[in-house]
Amino acid sequence: MSFKDAKNGSVLAVVDVVRTEQISPNFRRITVGGEQLAPLPNHGFDHWFRLFLPQEEGETSFALPNRADMVGYVKYLRMPSATRPHLRNYTVRQLRPEQLELDIDFVVHGDEGIATRWARRTQPGDTVALIDQGKAYDIVPDATHHVLVGDETGLPAIAGILRDLPRDAVGTAFIEIGHPEDTQEVDAPSGFDVQWLVRESGVPGQLALATVRAWHPPTTALSAYLVGEQALAAGARRHLVAAGVPKKSITFSGYWKVGHSH
Predict the structure, then answer these.
(1) Are the beta carbons of 149 and 225 closer than 8 angstroms?
(2) Mean pLDDT in runs of 10 for the chain (262 residues)?
(3) Is 100 left (phi over 0), alpha (psi -120 to 50) or beta?
(4) Which domain holds residue 74?
């Protein structure tokens, strides 16, 4: 399994910022809304989308293709660079179809990338666009245990999976965060052990990776989801494969890489 298998969604929504909130030391929640959210499917789990952010100076065109496949991406690249929006990938933290609202959680510590700067300065009324990309996590049909691993960038996806898993699901979640107050309420099945790993120093993702390497996967059928910094996702996958977990039972994605803005 891989994020490359995600469906090429065809719902383009141009929406406005409704409100912003600093929900913890390193997380800023941006709520967007508008009529164009009406056709957006509620995939649940790790529902993700392409997010198009405005230029930091000047005008931005949101006359975008409604697909993020190769043809759509070429059309996007052919837009004039001066007015072409910036493209990033994000996860739905919460979708409220009846209110036509969608929450996006941004990690805003120590990164001065385009998305972080936008999240810090955006105000209600600002415009962005998104293209639906479905969900990436497919539960292994015979799985009797789930393991979900991520740094803070993977928290929204893991929270969505925990919320939407069957209530009798059993598993373990390792979530690395940069501050004790970055923990969030998660609606996990009662059979889940959710472990919050507070990083006091060092490279993001390394604490979670060390924890996974010290963890012994159960001998029963496992369904794994590994996301966040590239070394975390790749290293955790290597550990599980070496422990005997079939590659087809692992969904993984390196969202970002240390030293590169995201």
Answers:
(1) yes
(2) 54 97 97 98 96 96 93 95 97 98 92 88 97 92 95 97 97 97 97 97 94 90 96 97 94 86 60
(3) left
(4) 3-132
Six token digits for residue 136: 């990436």
Q: Considering 84, 99, 132, which residue would you say is the last residue of a domain?
A: 132
Q: Are residues 167 and 123 in the same domain?
A: no
- What are 159's two structure tokens? 């929270």
CB atoms within 10 A of CB 202: 9
Q: What is the side-by-side order of every strand in the sheet holding 48-53?
A: 86-91, 48-53, 127-132, 12-24, 27-33, 101-107, 94-96
Contacts of 29 (CB under 8 A, 6+ apart): 20, 21, 22, 23, 93, 103, 104, 105, 106
Q: Which helix (H) or strand (E) holds 192?
A: strand 191-198
Amino acid 109: pLDDT = 75
CATH number at residue 61: 2.40.30.10
The pLDDT value given to residue 2: 45
Is residue 197 within 8 A of residue 205, CB to CB? The reply is no
Q: Which DSSP letter does residue 207 get?
A: H
